[in-house]
Amino acid sequence: MHKKRHLLIGVLLFFGVFILLYPSTGFAQSGTVNVDTTLNVRAEPSTSSAVIGSLYPGDTVDLEEVAGSWGKITYKGQTGYVSMTYIQTETGALEGKTIAIDAGHGGKDSGAVANGVLEKNVVLPIAQKTEAKLQAQGADVIMTRSADTFIELEDRAAKANAAGADVFVSIHANASSDTSANGTEVYYYPGSSSGQSLASSVQDSLVNQLGSRDRGIKSADFNVLRNTSMPAVLAEIGFVTNAAEAKKLNSSAYQDKAATGLVQGVKEYTE
């Protein structure tokens, strides 16, 4: 009898310690895959376990349980496990926020053109990826354009103002007569302390995600910054006039990194 009791106590202590060391959530939680290439889905919560599938950057998953550094999911009808190192679980961090995203140029206005790249064609997918990532964080997103259309500058600002947006982010690609010029910079309206704070957060996050040269934040009297009534920034992601950077800007993976940087910057500003 005493042996059975000791055995039962031992088992209970074991599981008690396990739960303390590897706490598990008791509810489903959404997460977003944050990797450069692919994320392995494994049969068991171990790096030595068999790979049963792959997830891609931006994929969303429903985490049934989280224990230690592993998350349990259902993958194509079967149980799988993913490393939580590559899953962002801040879903809802921007709940109740309205974010205006402005893809620069469009339609008859190509923006900067160099190295076979049109500015309007690289900033739109960045804006669309940013929209999806913001929505995954619970934000309401206002897009000034969602297709290759021409929108007047005044109308872009007016749309954000009418929606009562909390933040305005205009996305652009840079150009210079110096083809060696490269890097990322973010602009805010002169004298706007809130715009400056937002610009600082966005700049830091973009540079961190892209690994680009940090050209800093600057003030400028741009139309969309002057006419918006909320904290607003204009982000120059990189230079189309720089051959190496133009190639990156035209890459879906790089566009995704830029979107992640923009979202992270907005989140840090609103926290």
TrEMBL record:
PANTHER family for this protein: N-ACETYLMURAMOYL-L-ALANINE AMIDASE, N-ACETYLMURAMOYL-L-ALANINE AMIDASE AMIC
Residue stretches spanning the membrane: none
Keywords: Cell wall biogenesis/degradation, Hydrolase
Molecular-function annotations in GO: N-acetylmuramoyl-L-alanine amidase activity
Pfam families: Amidase_3 (PF01520), SH3_3 (PF08239)
Name listed for the protein in its UniProt record: N-acetylmuramoyl-L-alanine amidase
Domain of life, source organism: Bacteria
Keyword Cell wall biogenesis/degradation: yes
Span of the signal peptide: none
Organism of origin: Terribacillus halophilus
Gene3D superfamilies referenced in this protein's UniProt entry, alphabetically: SH3 Domains, Zn-dependent exopeptidases
Cell wall biogenesis/degradation as UniProt keyword: yes
SMART domains per record: Ami_3 (SM00646), SH3b (SM00287)
Listed InterPro entries: MurNAc-LAA_cat, N-acetylmuramoyl_amidase_3, SH3-like_bac-type
GO aspect biological process, one term: peptidoglycan catabolic process
Residues covered by the SH3b domain: 28-91
One GO cellular component, as annotated: outer membrane-bounded periplasmic space
